[in-house]
């Protein structure tokens, strides 16, 4: 029987049972695999017969994870990587060459921007940055040698929403690879393929794991692109460990129920903060006051588990606020069961200059909340108390 509903795919897409009739898929903690004969080994190495060779290439646990993710993202194929940043770099390094040009959103993760600014130019690859909502600028940025358009939506950490329908059509018109980092939304809330994306990238470390345990990444998309990404990972070694793949595959079984709670809590927190006198503004895709609310509603089934806001008083007030929190963890991670508060200017986007931060609306007092699964009353009480304490 073929399953199409998200929750069932997440739970029932599984490796075939071994002779031991295990209910949960086993972990294949092996670096290599044996062959029935010398001839079989040769055929597998030549790609003329399917089979596992070496866990840097393929592993049953990684294959199960890919099968789930590619089904969820409505694409042909996928690969797993050691981390989300390994996934980003794999896409850029394997699909581009010297002389190529990238158009990228200004609002992307600091480390992704580091690759574009500091590594790719040494490889002869140029980049043009565009404000996420400036459609005219996106069109004008396209050059004859533009090969790839890269963005995050919702963007990190401002949670701005890109119009993927417009960008998908733009890429198709100019024969450009459309790559979307879908980490913040997850395939449960948003499927970029529906809007023309060729490549979907995930930091599985975040919501796919959901409990802050392991690192992992994934690249999903058309087979013609994934085959190049696979060859790159196979030879450069940014492979996901079988154990981490097993953890992530099991975590996908609860992604839907976890995201429902994350989104419900985040929506309530965003609405609370929007009315708070100590908050200048709130960023959340599904707030009706959001200028791109209609686009976010079209692309995302719910608003996600992240909320951004600016605390009155700048960085000094923001620091006092963070230090006054008792329930929230202070860390740069996100997507955990536990609520997290982050100051992007000094952590996740600290590699950017002050000017670069302000250009993408990261102010000194801007905070990002990864809203966890605790009771919403406790989350709000902790934030409200910290706001009061930090005001003195």
Our count of helices gives 15
Main beta sheet: strand number and arrangement? Answer: 7 strands, mixed
- The total tally of domains equals 2
| Total strand segments | 12
Any idea of the CATH topology of the largest domain? Aspartate Aminotransferase, domain 2
Nearest-integer average pLDDT: 94
What's the CATH superfamily of the largest domain, by name?
Type I PLP-dependent aspartate aminotransferase-like (Major domain)
What would your notes on this structure say?
- The chain folds into two domains: 6-252, Aspartate Aminotransferase, domain 2 (3-Layer(aba) Sandwich), CATH 3.40.640; 255-390, Aspartate Aminotransferase, domain 1 (Alpha-Beta Complex), CATH 3.90.1150.
- Helices cover 40% and strands 15% of the residues.
- The protein has helices at residues 6-12, 38-45, 60-72, 84-95, 110-119, 135-141, 164-174, 186-189, 223-236, 242-252, 255-274, 293-299, 314-324, 354-359, 376-390; strands at residues 77-81, 101-105, 126-130, 146-152, 177-181, 199-203, 217-221, 279-283, 306-311, 329-330, 340-342, 366-370.
- The strands form two sheets. Strands 1-7-6-5-4-2-3 form a seven-stranded mixed sheet, sandwiched between helices. Strands 8-9-12-11-10 form a five-stranded mixed sheet.
- It is globular.
- The model has no long low-confidence stretch (mean pLDDT 94).
Structure at a glance:
This protein is α/β, with parallel strands linked by helices and about 400 residues long. It has 2 domains: about 5-250, 3-Layer(aba) Sandwich (Aspartate Aminotransferase, domain 2); about 255-390, Alpha-Beta Complex (Aspartate Aminotransferase, domain 1). It has helices spanning about 5-10, 40-45, 60-70, 85-95, 110-120, 135-140, 165-175, 185-190, 225-235, 240-250, 255-275, 295-300, 315-325, 355-360, 375-390, and strands at about 75-80, 100-105, 125-130, 145-150, 175-180, 200-205, 215-220, 280-285, 305-310, 330, 340, 365-370.
